[in-house]
């Protein structure tokens, strides 16, 4: 089919990069279909990611990725892929409302499945049209407390960006109906951890007791489990109704690349490959989801280049971009800890001086 249309033959040495990518993407999608029919979604996953890297604007590539995630019971990621598929369908001129409706129903089903299976947290979406105010957030939290009394150990409201739902989204109307996402946790530490992570300017995960020393194998395993079981699942759910991709904290992209580095240290090559391929697919899609600055474009290119080098097994002394960012994050954490320690010590000294002064005055009066 491709040869008859001239995409693969004709003048192969003069073929455009777009034509070559289209052919390669087509082959990857067929491999995804084959593995799914063989009921081997784990083998289909990397091919689904690669098809998006090669042709991120084709909505069916994202829909196939959603199908693979669903077969692997990764419903939050399936929901995000379906959301992007629907957006890409509209962005590239798709006008058949029946197709868009079916994609939205799939997206909605994945969100509902993700919510149903979540055990450590519960969620609430609140329609939003005006500017976010502190009193509005407090009111939302009061409603959440009454509605979900079992998940009030820590209540987190996502202020990184407003959310959209398949039931009300209309890409042709700007902006679409937006929602405020509130998460309630059974475990207070999970909520605090997410709050801390989302407040970072740099998208990085740091939990080092000794920030400037190399990780031991035990620390690496502990960090990997924290990332894989606590951080990434929460971020994946948050992003299942948040279209715009970015590089800030909680964006999920940088965190995945840092997670891949932990997998590499433990020599878990297959999992590392899947994580990096997924991150590359997300990076390739970002320019279609939002306008990016020149600085962000340069960062995106650097991340893609380093990710490709990692997959190809190229070893050099150059730091990977995501590891460099993580090091900067560790330094920031260390400085914040020093500042907090200094302020606490200063406060204690001031209190002691005032107490001593008060005792002297009382002694003099006596």
UniProtKB/TrEMBL annotation:
GO biological process: cell differentiation; spermatogenesis
InterPro entries reported for this sequence: SPATA16, TPR-like_helical_dom_sf
Highest taxon listed in the record's lineage: Eukaryota
Keywords, in A-Z order: Cytoplasmic vesicle, Developmental protein, Differentiation, Golgi apparatus, Spermatogenesis
GO cellular component: acrosomal vesicle; Golgi apparatus
Subcellular localization(s) per the UniProt record: Cytoplasmic vesicle, Secretory vesicle, Acrosome; Golgi apparatus
Annotated transmembrane regions: none
Family: Belongs to the SPATA16 family.
Name of this protein: Spermatogenesis-associated protein 16
Lineage: Eukaryota, Metazoa, Chordata, Craniata, Vertebrata
């Amino acid at each position: 089919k491709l040869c008859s249309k001239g995409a693969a033959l004709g003048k192969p040495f003069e073929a455009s990069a777009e034509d070559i990518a289209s052919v390669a993407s087509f082959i990857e999608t067929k491999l995804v279909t084959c593995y799914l029919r063989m009921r081997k979604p784990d083998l289909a996953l990397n091919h689904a990611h690669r098809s998006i890297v090669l042709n991120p604007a084709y909505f069916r590539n994202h829909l196939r990725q959603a199908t693979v995630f669903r077969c692997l019971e990764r419903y939050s990621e399936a929901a995000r892929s379906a959301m992007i598929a629907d957006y890409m369908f509209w962005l590239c001129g798709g006008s058949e409302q029946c197709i868009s409706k079916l994609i939205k129903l799939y997206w909605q089903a994945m969100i509902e499945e993700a919510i149903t299976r979540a055990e450590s947290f519960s969620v609430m979406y609140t329609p939003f049209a005006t500017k976010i105010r502190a009193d509005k957030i407090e009111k939302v939290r009061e409603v959440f407390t009454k509605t979900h009394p079992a998940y009030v150990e820590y209540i987190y409201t996502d202020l990184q960006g407003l959310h959209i739902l398949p039931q009300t989204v209309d890409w042709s109307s700007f902006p679409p109906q937006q929602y405020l996402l509130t998460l309630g946790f059974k475990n207070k530490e999970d909520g605090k951890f997410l709050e801390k992570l989302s407040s970072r300017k740099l998208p990085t995960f740091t939990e080092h007791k000794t920030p400037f020393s190399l990780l031991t194998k035990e620390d690496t395993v502990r960090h990997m489990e924290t990332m894989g079981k606590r951080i990434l699942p929460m971020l994946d759910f948050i992003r299942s109704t948040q279209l715009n991709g970015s590089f800030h904290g909680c964006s999920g992209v940088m965190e995945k690349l840092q997670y891949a580095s932990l997998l590499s240290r433990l020599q878990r090559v297959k999992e590392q490959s899947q994580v990096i391929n997924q991150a590359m697919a997300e990076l390739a899609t970002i320019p279609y989801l939002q306008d990016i600055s020149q600085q962000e474009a340069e960062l995106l290119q650097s991340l893609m280049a380093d990710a490709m080098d990692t997959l190809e097994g190229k070893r050099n002394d150059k730091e990977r971009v995501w590891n460099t960012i993580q090091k900067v994050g560790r330094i920031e954490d260390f400085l914040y800890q020093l500042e907090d320690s200094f302020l606490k010590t200063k406060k204690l000294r001031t209190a002691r001086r005032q107490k001593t002064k008060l005792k002297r005055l009382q002694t003099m009066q006596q």
